[in-house]
């Protein structure tokens, strides 16, 4: 293979470069085998017979398919394959739209790490805004390199890939913030940027895959009546929620949580534990209401009804489990030892906050003398039950993948390089386009691995070179199954692996988990361009560019928040606007697994139920699978075991005042909006996106993100304390 080195000036000749790519695209001819038919480029495919697309339609209805996101269903249900090789992908306007939304998406994703309610940037919101920006630019007259025609689906897809890649929150941020906040070890700019960048780049070397959304992009580009209606609906919903969110987030924060019980009953911890939910880890939020969409969330608008019913059942059961465990002092971590119901802190055996800075040296190793006096750390019953359920959910997902998708796994492993009838027809089409070289993938892995090792060394992580290599290898193994198991399995398995096999260092555990887990998230959208029929070179270029932009956006927001709001992040529950609870939770997990894992979680130890939960999760799907095979007409397949386990800890953390609203919203969406389900996804994207943009504007210009702050005086809709007027534990 001969490598041609081009001068920089060649790539700066933007119009010529694009025309060269256009000629390359025109020269290809595609044949898609679909049952007994052959389809060439530029031809619609109304039916593909028993191909991968139809297979995905069947699997999307399966109880163990991951169909909780609207993006994942739209591709599988799209039966129309149409490619126009003449359409350009990388244009000036698609780059501008992608860069603008990458900056916005990366900033918003980073911002919500410090918010009481953690939200992801919705991909549909990013796609719609990319389309709106690109369409606006297309109306500006100019030469062909600026305005080659209407803003196409491929341009929208490229800009959206860039923006979504920047909008992935980096786990490395948690590690950097935790070391700065709790051990006073701030990382230099070069070290921080190198750590974030290398952890993200590793993921692009692994071939993970996941079905994302493309149907909306194509419908927008077609500009039919349905697409125009969706776009108008999106604009109205977006502006309405953007204006409304100023009230619960700034002017009337009491609307975030309304608890009639805390307002009428005498103040007590028991009432707060059952009915409170305005703050993180305050209570179960039973029968509370919230009129803040950031707290209610958009999941109920698109999550299938069967999945929501499973989650409701799990929530009901978890209420009894949490309260029973707390009341009867399970694991010695309940009411009998004066423990809180929920807490992100590690706790002493007497129920007081564990002194982490005394028990663990700044280098992450154990202070034996201090631990001898303090004892080993403990956690509330609800926290331990939540860990057990999460482990059970991950192992149940692994077993369900084997039981229900064994044929798919086998076909992928046994399939020849030429593909065949089972090859994804989208992949068949994009083979004609310029491929991203395999050797470049290997160079990315090598360069990112070297950068990770250097960052680990100069960051005094305590993680050996072989430990870092093991972390990178584990990230590759996890990425292979990411399409089936999503990211939750990767995080849990990597934490357990390091904690149970290392010598006990929380800092090295930080680094191991960061590089074993972050890369899984980065590779989940690697096939987005394939389903939009973009060239692999364009897809990888967009992802790499978006990640670099997101890197600087993440770091800038982190520096601003850490510099201006450090004291707030160290407060137990923050100030209602910002909180360090997510960073504290990550820190506590790193110490419990990295330093004390062998004394807490191994068989025979106080919290061995966590390990047993993993084993139980492996066997849990088997009875449901056998019952379904025995009586398929009964509907056993509607019960998703991994979803059930994953939903059990939902009320055990976070702000819970919006749970009842979410249930009501789900019922309304399923039984009323269902006839307009094509708009449900658009509504979810508009509501969540508008909410996030308003919250970002408020934080920067009004709530202290910048050096200044405009405070609203305290009054009955802006209380000086919990928003729901519940009593909180000091």
From TrEMBL:
Entry GO MF terms: oligopeptide transmembrane transporter activity
Keyword Transmembrane in record: yes
Chief localisation class: membrane
Pfam families: OPT
Region (Disordered): 40-78
Keywords: Membrane, Peptide transport, Protein transport, Transmembrane, Transmembrane helix, Transport
GO cellular component terms, semicolon-separated: membrane
Location(s), subcellular: Membrane
Membrane topology label: Multi-pass membrane protein
Keyword Transmembrane helix part of the UniProt annotation: yes
TM stretches of this protein: 157-177, 189-207, 284-303, 309-328, 436-459, 465-495, 507-527, 533-556, 606-627, 682-702
InterPro entries: Oligpept_transpt (IPR004648), OPT (IPR004813)
GO BP annotations, alphabetical order: protein transport
Family that this chain belongs to: Belongs to the oligopeptide OPT transporter family.
PANTHER family on file: ISP4 LIKE PROTEIN
Name of the molecule in the record: OPT oligopeptide transporter protein-domain-containing protein
Species for this entry: Phakopsora pachyrhizi (Asian soybean rust disease fungus)
């Amino acid at each position: 293979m001969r490598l041609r080195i081009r001068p920089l000036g060649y790539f700066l000749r933007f119009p010529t470069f694009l025309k060269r790519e256009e000629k390359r695209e025109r020269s290809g001819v595609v044949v898609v085998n679909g049952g007994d038919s052959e389809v060439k480029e530029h031809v619609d495919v109304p039916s593909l017979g028993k191909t991968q697309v139809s297979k995905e339609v069947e699997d999307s209805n399966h109880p163990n398919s991951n169909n909780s996101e609207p993006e994942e269903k739209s591709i599988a249900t799209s039966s129309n394959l149409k490619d126009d090789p003449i359409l350009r992908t990388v244009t000036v306007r698609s780059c501008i739209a992608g860069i603008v939304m990458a900056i916005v998406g990366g900033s918003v994703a980073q911002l919500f790490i410090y918010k009481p309610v953690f939200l992801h940037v919705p991909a549909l919101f990013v796609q719609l805004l990319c389309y709106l920006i690109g369409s606006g630019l297309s109306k500006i007259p100019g030469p062909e390199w600026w305005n080659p025609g209407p803003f196409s689906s491929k341009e929208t897809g490229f800009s959206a890939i860039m923006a979504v890649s920047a909008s992935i929150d980096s786990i490395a941020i948690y590690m950097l913030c935790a070391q700065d906040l709790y051990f006073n070890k701030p990382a230099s700019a070069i070290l921080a940027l190198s750590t974030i960048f290398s952890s993200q780049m590793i993921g692009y070397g692994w071939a993970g895959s996941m079905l994302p959304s493309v149907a909306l992009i194509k419908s927008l580009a077609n500009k039919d009546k349905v697409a125009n209606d969706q776009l108008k609906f999106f604009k109205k919903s977006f502006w309405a929620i953007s204006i409304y969110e100023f009230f619960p987030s700034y002017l009337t924060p009491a609307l975030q949580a309304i608890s009639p019980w805390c307002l009428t009953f005498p103040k007590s911890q028991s009432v707060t534990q059952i009915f409170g939910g305005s703050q993180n880890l305050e209570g179960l939020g039973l029968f509370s209401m919230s009129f803040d969409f950031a707290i209610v969330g958009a999941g109920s608008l698109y999550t299938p009804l069967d999945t929501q019913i499973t989650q409701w059942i799990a929530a009901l059961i978890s209420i009894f489990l949490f309260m029973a465990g707390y009341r009867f002092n399970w694991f010695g971590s309940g009411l009998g030892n004066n423990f809180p119901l929920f807490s992100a802190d590690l706790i002493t055996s007497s129920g007081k906050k564990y002194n982490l800075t005394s028990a663990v040296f700044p280098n992450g190793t154990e202070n034996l003398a201090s631990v001898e006096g303090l004892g080993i750390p403990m956690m509330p019953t609800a926290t331990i039950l939540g860990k057990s359920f999460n482990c059970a959910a991950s192992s149940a997902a692994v077993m369900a993948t084997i039981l229900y998708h064994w044929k798919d796994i086998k076909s992928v492993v046994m399939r020849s390089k030429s593909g065949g009838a089972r090859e994804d027809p989208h992949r068949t089409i994009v083979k004609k386009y310029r491929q991203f070289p395999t050797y470049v993938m290997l160079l990315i892995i090598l360069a990112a691995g070297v950068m990770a090792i250097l960052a680990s060394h100069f960051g005094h992580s305590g993680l050996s070179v072989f430990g870092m290599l093991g972390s990178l290898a584990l990230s590759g193994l996890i990425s292979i199954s990411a399409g089936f198991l999503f990211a939750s399995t990767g995080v849990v398995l990597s934490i357990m692996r390091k904690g149970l096999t290392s010598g006990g260092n929380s800092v090295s555990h930080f680094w191991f988990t960061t590089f074993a887990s972050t890369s899984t998230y980065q590779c989940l959208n690697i096939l987005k361009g394939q389903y939009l029929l973009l060239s692999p070179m364009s897809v990888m270029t967009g992802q790499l560019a978006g990640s670099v932009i997101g890197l600087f956006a993440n770091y800038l927001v982190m520096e601003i928040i850490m510099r201006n709001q450090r004291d707030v992040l160290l407060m137990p529950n923050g100030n209602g606007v910002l909180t360090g609870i997510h960073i504290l939770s990550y820190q506590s997990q790193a110490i419990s697994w990295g330093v004390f894992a062998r004394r807490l979680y191994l068989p025979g130890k106080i919290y061995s139920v966590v390990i047993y939960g993993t084993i139980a999760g492996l066997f849990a799907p088997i009875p449901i699978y056998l019952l379904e095979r025995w009586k398929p007409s009964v509907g056993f397949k509607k019960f998703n075991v991994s979803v059930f386990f994953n939903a059990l800890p939902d009320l055990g953390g976070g702000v819970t005042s919006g749970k009842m609203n979410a249930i009501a919203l789900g019922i309304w969406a399923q039984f009323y909006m269902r006839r307009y389900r094509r708009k449900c996804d658009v509504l979810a994207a508009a509501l969540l996106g508008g909410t996030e943009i308003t919250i970002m504007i408020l934080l920067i210009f009004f709530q202290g993100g910048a050096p200044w702050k405009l405070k609203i005086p305290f009054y009955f809709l802006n209380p000086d304390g919990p928003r729901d007027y519940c009593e909180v534990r000091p």
